[in-house]
Write a structure and sequence with these properties.
Layout lengths: L2 H20 L6 E14 L26 E16 L3 E6 L5 E7 L4 E2 L9 E3 L9 E6 L4 E5 L28 H21 L10 H14 L6 H14 L6 H8 L9 H5 L22 H8 L8 E4 L5 E4 L2 H11 L5
């Protein structure tokens, strides 16, 4: 049995302990964070390695070989996935195979086991597809090799908006989870890249909040050229503390109760997705936003407009004052009455 497989029950037991103690404590909090850990650096990989150094003829294997170890050590910021309740806080490193890094007893602040405070890469095999890397963890009983391949994870409890809308090619027999995993990865990659390019004054605390806004922009946009302007209006309202008052969010909250006709009582009935009664963003995305909508959400147009109304041809009329907005509503929504 590999060290990785042998270690799995340890992680399972400790994570299960968090959930078990939560039966009589506060609910488990799941969140992503970072931790700076001294780590040995890895040099550039060999992109064209020989299959066998001892063979008489050289045959290059079609895999990248990561064998360039160095003695350079530096502080590196690693992502951590954390599960926490009143008694325990468990941290794993998703970019290192999802391995357990720390389990803290919150009653005394002491970790329940010892791990080498420095992460060190090491070659565990040589040829072809077997060429990989491990991370050395120094436990009280032995040294254990574990994979450094990243694992997927999601801290969100609601799936809406987490999968990037695109056309995906897949082989016959592929599982639905495999396709969804790809779509999730693509969305995370796009979101991380655009979040890094966001406007300095973007009013979001997390990339997930930006994703929620992007989903609203996606549903409110009738003409692609207006995405940034619509995002600018919504951001202005968010910053000023105004209610967003977006119909698509209310409709999403109604679910199967929506029959195609949004009525006044729908706007007055409070609910988590009713942006006419609750300030701020809805709790989750309300659609799968396109890349264009994500970009608009994180870099909205700078505008003074606080209102917009559909003309009926896919475009919108934007207004800076309520008086102007009511005039546009009368003209385009009420037939000039």
């Amino acid at each position: 049995m590999s060290a990785q497989a042998a270690r799995l029950p340890v992680v399972t037991v400790l994570v299960a302990a968090v959930w078990a103690t939560s039966a009589r404590a506060d609910p488990v909090r799941v969140f992503e964070a970072t931790e700076t850990i001294p780590s040995y650096e890895e040099g550039p990989p060999d992109v064209n390695p020989p299959f066998d150094l001892f063979a008489s003829g050289r045959f290059n294997y079609p895999y990248t070989l990561r064998e360039n170890l160095t003695d350079r050590r530096s502080d590196r910021v690693w992502r951590t996935l954390n599960l926490e309740n009143e008694y325990l806080r468990v941290s794993v490193l998703p970019d290192l195979g999802g391995r357990l890094w720390r389990c803290v007893d919150k009653s005394n602040g002491i970790s329940m086991f010892y791990a080498n405070p420095t992460l060190k890469f090491a070659q565990v095999a040589y040829r072809g597809a077997w060429a990989t890397f491990g991370i050395e963890f120094n436990f009280p009983v032995s040294h254990n090799w574990v994979t450094s391949s990243p694992v997927d994870f999601a801290t969100e409890r609601h799936p809406e908006g987490l999968f990037f809308p695109d056309t995906y090619l897949f082989a016959r027999g592929s599982s639905d989870l495999a396709v969804l995993r790809r779509a999730y990865r693509v969305m995370q990659e796009h979101l991380a890249r655009e979040w890094a390019r966001r406007a300095p004054d973007a009013p979001y605390k997390t990339p997930y909040e930006a994703l929620i806004m992007a989903s609203i922009v996606e549903k409110e946009t009738g003409r692609a050229s207006e995405r940034e302007q619509i995002a600018g209006v919504l951001v202005n309202r968010l910053r000023s503390g105004m209610l967003l008052q977006v119909d698509p969010s209310v409709i999403y909250g109604l679910g199967s109760q929506f029959d195609g006709n949004l009525r006044k009582n729908h706007l007055l009935t409070d609910g988590p997705y009713n942006t006419y009664t609750r300030a701020g963003l809805p709790p989750t995305p309300i659609a799968m936003p396109s890349l264009a909508s994500i970009r608009a959400a994180v870099n909205p147009e700078r505008t003074k407009a606080l209102y917009f109304v559909a003309r009926g041809d896919g475009s919108s009329v934007f207004s800076e004052s309520l008086v102007e907005h009511n005039r546009a509503v009368n003209q385009y929504q009420r037939g000039g009455r």
